[in-house]
Amino acid sequence: MKNKFILKPILISMILGISALVIFSQSNRDSPAENKKANKRPAAVTTKTPEKPEFANSAIDESIESDDEILTVDTSIVTIPVRVLDRQGRFLGGLKEEDFSVFEDKNLQKIEYFSNENSPFTVALVLDMSYSTVFKINEIQQAALSFITQLRPNDKVMIVSFDGEINVLSEPTSDRKQLEQAIVKTRIGSGTSLYEAVD
Questions:
Q1: pTM (2 d.p.)
Q2: Average pLDDT value over all residues in the chain
Q3: What is the sign of the dihedral through the CA atoms of 164, 197, 142 and 157?
Q4: Averaged over 52-73, what is the pLDDT?
Q5: Among 10, 13, 106, 122, fewest CB within 10 Å belongs to which?
Q6: Rounded CA separation 177/170 (Å)
Q7: Cβ distance 179 to 157 under 8 Å?
Q8: Helices (H), ranges, the chain
């Protein structure tokens, strides 16, 4: 009887040992596959980028087209040259933008640009060479020469002297040397033809 009791725990332990070996061997068989699965790189997954919905593009295109249509500007700038004289017909210079008001169909218009430009002029310099100025000829010539030095490049002057008759000493020109020579050559005459010279 004693042997029977001893064999039972031995058999039980052997059965437990065999079952442990079987489980261990199965786990060893499964582990390489699992390791392979663990070490195996995941397959590359490609995803297709979703295309933009057509309505979005159409909306953008429509907005661009509408912008092109909106950016249409209809405007005009008119240049108005002005020369101002006083009641005696004398030229008035030095005027500023605030001195002017521009109207169109009784509506006040905004002045976008104002420029006080002095246009080139052509003038006749008339010298009195009558006998009454015999003692003032130097002063007359010096005053005429001083006037010439103040000319701008495009200004033109005509030199005219008068005594008993009218003498055109120089046609309108901007050549200062020619004008100076004409002034220096002036001589005192005998009579006076003031009215003819002015006409």
A1: 0.41
A2: 72
A3: negative
A4: 50
A5: 106
A6: 11
A7: yes
A8: 2-39, 54-70, 137-149, 176-184, 194-198
The two tokens of residue 32 are 């390489």
Residue-wise pLDDT tens digits, 63-73: 444 555 666 65
Distance between CA atoms of 44 and 41, rounded to whole angstroms? 9
Mean pLDDT for the stretch of residues 137-163:
91
Domains of the chain as residue ranges with CATH: 122-198 (3.40.50.410)
Q: Indicate the pLDDT class of residue 88, thresholds 50, 70 and 90.
A: confident
Q: What is the mean pLDDT of residues 122-151?
A: 90
d(C-alpha 130, C-alpha 195), whole Å = 13
Name the CA dihedral angle for 55, 58, 62, 68, rounded to a multiple of 10 degrees: 150
Cβ–Cβ < 8 Å for 176, 148: yes
Find the radius of gyration of the CA atoms of the chain.
57
Half-sphere exposure of 86 (CA within 13 A, CB side): 6
Q: How far is CA 43 from CA 46, 49, 65, in A?
A: 10, 19, 47
Rounded to an integer, the average pLDDT of 11-33 is 50
